[in-house]
Design brief:
Two copies of one chain form a homodimer. Chain A has about 190 residues and is mostly helical. The first copy, chain A, contains nine helices and no strands. In chain A, helix 2 crosses helix 3 and helix 4 packs parallel to helix 7. The model of chain A has no long low-confidence stretch (mean pLDDT about 95). The structure holds a DNA duplex (30 and 30 nucleotides).
Amino acid sequence: MPKLGMEPIRKAALVQATITEIGRTGSLEVTVSQIAKRAGMSSALAHHYFGGKEALFLAAMRHVLSLYGAEVRGALLSAAGPQARITAILRASFSPTNFRREVVGAWLNFYVLAQTVPEAKRLLAIYQRRLRSNLLHDLRPLSGARAGELADGLGALIDGLYLREVLKDGPPDGEAAVACARAYLDSHLKEPSL
Amino acid sequence: MPKLGMEPIRKAALVQATITEIGRTGSLEVTVSQIAKRAGMSSALAHHYFGGKEALFLAAMRHVLSLYGAEVRGALLSAAGPQARITAILRASFSPTNFRREVVGAWLNFYVLAQTVPEAKRLLAIYQRRLRSNLLHDLRPLSGARAGELADGLGALIDGLYLREVLKDGPPDGEAAVACARAYLDSHLKEPSL
DNA sequence: TTTTTTGTTGATTGACGAGTCAATAAACTT
DNA sequence: AAGTTTATTGACTCGTCAATCAACAAAAAA
């Protein structure tokens, strides 16, 4: 039965299954067997391809981060002007793809992972820096010197909205989150001179 | 050696040790033995007094939440007027007591716990409701109809600032966090009529 | 003084889970 | 055809950990 060229397929399936399982159980206490089973293979194969649980987690994290990054980049392509670009970033952050319970749950647990695993911390730091730099780029023309604090605040607000989504029951509402973040911005941008 | 009336002392020590260990390792994967050792007793005694690991976690959570609540209440006593009261809440939230790596790490993991343990979810929900109600009480006289959204946004921002603290290295800076939250508020309160 | 209650632990149990390995099989290479 | 590489798994090892238990000690109650 063994067909060749399985490696990328298996790996992709495992990464997806990892995200799903972490999101489903809401914790990192998932067994390699659970993940492998969901991905339709034995746990031994998961070890074969990834070498260990931690590497699997990190691969899943990279995947989520890269999906998010791609979505932001995509949204930025069709946005002209600072205002539109910032809105695009927010839309991407709270898009149905990213703002799903499963994915949000995974994010939360990546933060936990970052406390123990340096590589996870590094990855999250990269995400934060990139977000900040993106926001800064478009905030500077709008608010000048204050752009720095604004970007920091907005970043924290986004993370906070994610965090709260974890606890909420009922379906996710990305629109509301975008509105909240926009309100934060708009009120800050109202004063022209000071 | 056994002296009587040990129960409350042992329990308090265990709760404290639990928070410390969760904060130190940054995860819920702490063994009862670790906790008991830090609290200066055998793991069997921990089981004797709390019945199980989960109950111990919940007790720790209640303790953190109640400390936080007490600090907020205390700060509110010496605050007159909505503006001062809101500032007091922010100060308490980011006070050196609560805004320590150890405690912040514990909070993060309580969010994770809330995904699996209904009682943990309930406790966090109570905290969120109380914070919201406190903010609302003082935002209404300041911003009227918008108070609702404002309270939600501010709540999320506070959580987000906590979350970011987890990743940061270097000592915690509560002042900066308070400033950020105040900035959020001030800009929102600037428009008198709309 | 016996008995009961409270405090305490070392040793044990039982489950579970990460990682390894030997074995099997299909596909490619020579 | 013989040998190599890739895919795949069941069975096993080894460690860890929550939870239990039997036993001991001291204080309080009887």
